[in-house]
Amino acid sequence: MPSTDVRARIKNLFPKIFEVPGTHDFAPGGGLYEKGDLYLLDGEVKRWAGATAPVTSPVCVSEKDGPAAPRLIGRAATLTAEEAARAMQAAVRAYDRGRGKWPQMKVAERIHCVEHFAELMEGTREEVVRLLMWEIGKTRKDSEKEFDRTVEYIRDTIEALKDVDRQAGRFSMHSGILAQIRRSPLGVTLCMGPYNYPLNETFTTLVPALIMGNTVICKLPRFGVLCSAPLLRCFASAFPAGVVNIVNGDGATVVTPAIASEHLAALAFIGSAKVANILKRQHPMPNRLRCILGLNAKNPGIVLPDADVGLAVEHCVTGALSYNGQRCTALKLLFVHRSRAEEFVAALAEAVDKLPFGLPWEEGVKITPLPEPNKSEYLAELLADAKKGGAKVCNKYGGLSNLTFFYPAVAYPVTPKMRMYHEEQFGPVIPVAVYDDVNEVLDYVTLAPFGQQASVFGNDPKTIGSVVDVLANEVSRVNINAQCQRGPDVYPFTGRKDSAEGTLSVSDALRCFSIRSMIAAPNSEANTELMQEILLRRTSNFINTDYIF
Ligand code: G3H
Questions:
Q1: CA torsion, points 308, 313, 316, 317, in degrees to nearest 10?
Q2: Per residue of the chain (549 residues), what is the pLDDT tens digit?
Q3: Ligand 1 mean position to 482 CA, how many Å?
Q4: Which of 123, 463, 500, 549 has the smallest count of CB within 10 Å of its CB?
């Protein structure tokens, strides 16, 4: 493609409002999405009559001949601290110190509510997908994937809980003590998901928290607020009042009533380590707060001297640029052995320049506009800083931008003196550094504040074996000849240092949001008879042997 074509296409990327295809718009014919001021409190979907904040799309549009600007797509409720406190009170009431209907409910009944929710949720797919495209600029394909993956996660969670419950149905006997061990809820839980997966990552904590019998306050992310609106009625129909409460507004205002309350038992937060630290410090009794955190990461990709460069490039492109690099698991710094660096960078630059870019609904598109304000400017600053230090932008169009759109850039050679060597860019910039001895890379990993994942590309069993042995004690997943990623969701997803606290996978999440409780009784004739009577007369939800199939 001649360079002028790419330049012209970037310049003319954004459509006139009347050119937006109705089949991809959240409000065909223009206008605002009308459910942004809804929230869920104590089982009721309410319309907020107070202040609202404009929600703009990273997709810019222009009216007739005017300049393009981020399209205003709706207005979101900005709840007050008083309203957020009411949501917290509703969750506290519904939990009722473990005596509430929800935490006392049999596992089978809770599963039934979650199944019902999943069925209702499926009916919102197209509405949610269109909102994801508009609110966070995710491609239609990836938005659909996010939705479907979330529904699948809910169904897998149900199956995992059935397994857990089958195990818990058995009595055990050790040293004369008869016991039944189950997992009990923790209490009121605050869930806060991130903007890059507003649906999926929020639900990967919200759903296990709910199904284990906790009650929940969910604060919607910075961007990706409207896409939850279609689900509020599903929650209200599927769960008893107060079990799920969904609030939105200024973070400090709406989160404080929950986090500063002694009733808050668990915090599930996906975001920055800085905010996680602020939140944790606000809890009056930190030792009572269980934290499940997904935080910062700067996963390295390590290209060894004997790597298959074609394969490494393919995985580094998707690893670094899927959803424009806005993934916590993205490859954010590549280390290439000096002997292969020129070859690798040339192939990487060529592959990046072939990526289809455009608007989220366009067929096959991979690179789209970015939702964070001033993100193009920030990424341009990173490039300028790297250039000042002697790096070059190696792909032809790298760094070209138009408002919210930033063309991916390959920067090389990147050194520790440059900002992009250290900062989590969370966007379409690929820093490539050179190494001579793999220990230089391992030292980087050891000294970095992050410890989520790494990718290693190579084929020599001896080298891979020894590199893995070091990395395995520094990060939580080493991907061999593959990009970093979270899935499949049945595998453990976690990190060390400032990257995570707690482990999420379908089954680990059930553990995170519960604690083991047991009944124990000396194995006497009288106690055996007592247990049998409890089981026979079904006088307890905890002591029972009903299996769920
Ligand atoms: O942003 C962090 C996500 O958990 C990454 O998930 O690897 O499936 O994109 P992913």
A1: -160
A2: 455 699 999 999 999 988 999 999 988 667 899 999 999 999 999 999 999 999 999 999 998 888 999 999 999 999 999 999 999 999 999 999 999 999 999 999 999 999 999 999 999 999 999 999 999 999 999 999 999 999 999 999 999 999 999 989 899 999 999 999 999 999 999 999 999 999 999 999 999 999 999 999 999 999 999 999 999 999 999 999 999 999 999 999 999 999 999 999 999 999 999 999 999 999 999 999 999 999 999 999 999 999 999 999 999 999 999 999 999 999 999 999 999 999 999 999 999 999 999 999 999 999 999 999 999 999 999 999 999 999 999 999 999 999 999 999 999 999 999 999 999 999 999 999 999 999 999 999 999 999 999 999 999 999 999 999 999 999 999 999 999 999 999 999 999 999 999 999 999 999 999 999 999 999 999 999 999 999 999 999 999 988 766
A3: 14
A4: 549
Residues in contact with 383: Cβ distance below 8 Å, sequence separation at least 6, in sequence order: 393, 398, 399, 409, 411, 420, 429
Mutate to test the pocket of ligand 1, among 324, 328, 494, 504 (most ligand atoms within 8 A of CB): 328
- According to DSSP, residue 24 is labeled G
Short-list 340, 339, 366, 321, CA closest to 483:
321
Give the end of a domain, one of 265, 294, 323. 294
**Ligand 1 pocket test: which of 453, 486, 508 has the largest number of ligand atoms within 8 Å of its C-beta?**
486
CA distances from 183 to 110, 199, 531 (A): 14, 26, 19
CA of 485 to the centre of ligand 1 (A): 6
Residue 513 lies in a domain: no
**438 and 310, same structural domain?**
yes
Classify residue 510: in a domain, yes or no.
Answer: no
Ligand 1 atom closest to the Cα of residue 493 is: 4
Report the chain's C-alpha Rg in angstroms.
25
Q: How many domains does the chain have?
A: 2
Q: Which domain holds residue 464?
A: 299-494
Q: Is the previous residue joined to 408 through a cis bond, with omega within 30 degrees of 0?
A: no
Atom of ligand 1 nearest to the CA of 196: 1
Residue 547 lies in a domain: no
Residues in the chain, how many? 549
CA distance 200 to 360: 18
Cβ neighbours, 10 Å, residue 516: 10
Task: Say yes or no: 237 and 330 in one domain.
Answer: no
Same domain, residue pair 374 and 477? yes
Burial of 396 (0-12, 13-18, 19+ CB in 10 A): middle
| d(C-alpha 64, C-alpha 153), whole Å | 44
Q: Which of 152, 201, 269 most suits a substitution to test ligand 1, by most atoms within 8 Å of the C-beta? A: 201
For atom 4 of ligand 1, which residue has the closest CA?
A: 486
Residue of the CA atom closest to atom 6 of ligand 1: 486
Residue in this structure with the two tokens 């074996």, named with its chain if needed: 465
